[in-house]
Write a structure and sequence with these properties.
The chain is an alpha+beta fold. 35% of the residues lie in helices and 12% in strands. The protein contains four helices and four strands. The strands form two sheets. A two-stranded parallel ribbon has the order 1-2. Strand 1, helix 2 and strand 2 form a beta-alpha-beta unit.
């Protein structure tokens, strides 16, 4: 999936600002392992999550800014993952603070073509 995401980012990077929000590991080896390609533990501290996000950015060259989600709820405020139901991953389009697109799974996956179509529609109405 990552190569397809990077291709979409590359296609739109001159017109759209992309940001990756690093949330929980989808298939941490100590919780829900799938395959043996990547064996990472679920972060147990914010420092561990930041370190894992930095490794992702360094080793995978994700081509966009990366921010790290908080790990806890404080003062009743939800972290990004909780507020936006983004686990294990999801694509969002936010324009001036308003969500204009939320990827919805079909056949147990998300389709980047849906996001691409939304971006095309948005740009054609400008």
């Amino acid at each position: 999936m990552l190569p397809n995401i990077l291709a979409l980012v590359d296609e739109w990077k001159d017109r759209v600002d992309f940001t990756c929000v690093y949330i929980q590991e989808a298939h941490a080896s100590d919780e829900w392992p799938i395959g043996k390609k990547c064996a990472v533990l679920q972060a147990t501290s914010i420092d561990m999550r930041i370190s894992m996000a930095q490794t992702l950015q360094r080793e995978m060259d994700i081509g966009m800014p990366l921010v790290v989600d908080s790990m806890e709820l404080s003062s009743g405020n939800a972290n990004f993952e909780t507020a936006y139901a983004s686990w294990p991953f999801r694509f969002w389009c936010v324009v001036q603070g308003v969500v204009t697109f939320k990827a919805m799974p079909r056949e147990a996956t998300y389709h980047l073509a849906d996001l691409g179509a939304h971006l095309s529609d948005m740009m054609s109405t400008k």
